[in-house]
From TrEMBL:
Keywords: Membrane, Transmembrane, Transmembrane helix. GO terms for cellular component: vacuolar membrane. This is Amino acid transporter AVT1E. It comes from the Eukaryota. It is a multi-pass membrane protein. One of its GO terms (molecular function) is L-amino acid transmembrane transporter activity. The gene is AVT1E.
Length: 244
């Protein structure tokens, strides 16, 4: 519920635990690197991918920052993990929910595409449309729905995934792979040299990713292990479904 005008807004001090939990959340929000190869592969002009990625991240920052800053300024310590839960029931809230549902419908297809293709390749599913592709992707969707319903407070899991897997795929692995590819020497492979300042830049990113991701993962696991963090899923306790 939104804070009323009479209530005093409290801004609690930030500690290291909150900082590293936020670290995982922020990485999750910007961690699309694992899907970038499929995006570039589907582009008409693949050389324009750096421009597309730069513009995309710029728009994300313009979308995320106002919501994060204004939400905290308006609600203070009463702000919920899902900012929509902090807004009082109204027509505006309903419109926001509809727009978010549409966003999830279209964005989810892009995010899950890379994983779907990996599973299809693993099970040797033909690339053309057929019942096997439908079965694989439908099974993935059912599993995702099951996980979503099994973990009502998914924000805590989001912190864990962001601090561990997303940090690796967005910061650590890309830098390592880039360095290894540029170090490769082969007659059929173009020679690429990384300047010293760029090597230092890559090392800093890798170290920050490993240290920050490791601490964020530890903080997220402690947060999940807390007794108040567990709620039975809706298919176990239907009467408590409204409290999720």
């Amino acid at each position: 519920m939104a804070a009323s005008a009479e209530e005093k807004i409290i801004y609690p001090p930030t500690d290291l635990k909150k900082f590293f939990l936020a670290f995982g959340t922020i990485y999750f929000s910007f961690g699309g690197a694992a899907s970038f190869p499929t995006f570039q592969n589907d582009m008409k002009n693949r050389n324009d991918f750096p421009k597309a990625a730069t513009v995309g991240f710029a728009f994300l920052i313009l979308l995320y920052l106002p919501v994060a800053i204004l939400g905290y300024v308006v609600y203070g310590d009463k702000v919920q993990a899902d900012i929509i839960d902090s807004i009082s029931p109204s027509t505006i809230k309903s419109i926001i929910q509809v727009l978010l549902a549409l966003h999830m419908l279209f964005a989810f297809l892009l995010v899950i595409n890379a994983s779907s293709q990996e599973f299809e390749e693993f099970f040797k599913v033909p690339s053309k449309f057929g019942w096997k592709r439908v079965a694989i992707r439908s099974s993935m969707m059912l599993f995702i729905v099951f996980v979503a319903q099994s973990v009502p407070k998914f924000g805590k899991v989001l912190n864990l995934v962001g601090g561990s897997a997303v940090t690796l795929t967005a910061s650590v692995f890309p830098c390592i792979f880039y360095y290894r590819l540029c170090s490769k020497r082969d007659p059929n492979w173009p020679e690429r040299n990384i300047p010293v300042h760029e090597k230092i830049y890559l090392i800093v990113i890798i170290v920050c990713g490993i240290v920050g991701g490791g601490i964020s993962t530890y903080a997220a696991m402690n947060d999940i292990a807390a007794p108040e963090s567990f709620n039975p899923p809706c298919y176990v306790n239907l009467t408590a479904a409204d409290n999720f």
